[in-house]
Predict the structure.
Amino acid sequence: MQSLIENILYDFSYWSLSALSFGYFMVLYFGVGALFLFACKRLERVKLLHKIELKPVEKKQTTFEIAHSIKSILIFGFSVIPVIYLVRTDLIVLLPNTWLNIMLGIVLLTLWNEVHFFVVHRLMHFNFFMRHIHFIHHKSRIPTIYSVYSFHWFEAFLLSTVPLTILPFIPFSIVAVFIYPLASILLNFAGHCNYRFGEGKEDHWLNFGTAHNTHHTKGRKNYGFALNFLDKLFSGMNK
């Protein structure tokens, strides 16, 4: 396993690794997304999940979301190039792929993504960026699983820098880095699927995605990704 990973990291061309990354994100977006939506609908039938916004989503919104998401995924695919370059030049140190390193890596990347996303998202709500860039994501007034990557190309580029802004400074298991997008998109689906646990109880401990759904509807507050600790810490900015 270790030797296979090393062969891929050091022997594959940058174009091949970008193509693999693009394919990986496509599988996450369309494949895992379809499974997530199927699970949501099944849980809705047994009344464990409840729709937040009952108004149906128009087909043109979904088409718009998918088109912009594919552009974002293309950018995510290219974002692997600087990371691989830094690995090959030993500017990024990789840890052994033990279970402990993998789990700690995923947790740390999740927490770092909260900080990174909050900063980028808050920046996107300044007037200039909102008018020219972030409005693309807010076209999804009622969010869906297909709106998770529906960004302007510049916002997608900023969001793609999560690994690049931490890997040169803290060593990680490469398997943790590979698995993290799966953990991230599951949280992203939860924040965009337009479902919540319980009968409208927004403060339910499982409703960590409800805040972002509300953000899409109202266009303000709730700038965090899956957690809300930074929103509470910087509550004065939540306007």
In short: The mean pLDDT is 88. The first helix runs from residue 2 to 11. The beta strands are 49-51, 94-95, 172-173, 195-197.
